[in-house]
Amino acid sequence: MRAEGQFRHRGYRTSDGRFHGFLLADGQFTTIDYPGAIGIQGMAINASGTIAGYYVDAASRFHGFVLDDGVYTTIDPPGSVQTGGPAGALKINPAGDVAGNFTMVPDMGMGMMTCGFIYRNGAFVIYHVPGASSTSIFGINPQGDIVGSYVDSAGRRHGFLAPRVTEENQ
């Protein structure tokens, strides 16, 4: 159960092999399919019924999305080669701020790197702990504070709590 009277499950697979998301709200079952996607998973829903999740395109690339009032919006941070997916769970708070993870190729050309992000009002805030090999966000609260972890240069994982980013503390 999620927001009052709503149940969101990651999805179901049909005989053609496609994966579909769904929402069960007030006894009504609704399939969630991003246009043109070969698979989709809704990962979180807020009290307003806005859903955050990810879909897979025809090239097997993962993309984040928000479904709000029947309108899908792709949310791929700048430089992303993959958003969401098994390693990039997406969360959403009551204000509609989306928290998640994405994979990018750093400028240094040293392979892939995971970074966290917040998508708020059409803009991205990227989270990467300096010197870390990866930074991941696992949750966001109603105030916009986030929790996550990072892996330091010695390979040790550390947890963190970060306050909401505003223009004043950016």
Report on the architecture of this protein.
This protein has 170 residues and is mostly beta strands. It has one domain (6-162): Neuraminidase (6 Propeller). 0% of the residues lie in helices and 53% in strands. The strands form 4 sheets. Strands 8, 9, 10, 11 and 12 form a 5-stranded antiparallel beta sheet that branches. A 4-stranded antiparallel beta sheet has the order 4-5-6-7, with no helix packed on it.
Give a short overview.
The chain has strands at 6-13, 19-25, 28-32, 39-45, 51-56, 62-68, 71-75, 80-83, 91-92, 98-104, 113-120, 123-127, 134-140, 146-151, 157-162. The chain is an all-beta fold. The chain has one domain (6-162): TolB, C-terminal domain (Neuraminidase).
At the third CATH level, what is the topology name?
Neuraminidase
CATH class: Mainly Beta
CA radius of gyration:
16 Å
Number of domains: 1
What is the helix content? Answer: under 10%
Largest sheet descriptor: 5 strands, antiparallel
Strand content: over 45%
CATH architecture: 6 Propeller
Fourth-tier CATH superfamily name: TolB, C-terminal domain
The class by helix and strand makeup works out as mainly beta
- In angstroms, what separates the terminal alpha carbons? 35 Å
Shape: globular
The number of distinct β-strands equals: 15
Number of helices: 0
Low-confidence stretches: none
| Assembly state (oligomeric) | single chain
Question: What's the order of the H and E elements?
Answer: EEEEEEEEEEEEEEE
Mean pLDDT: 85
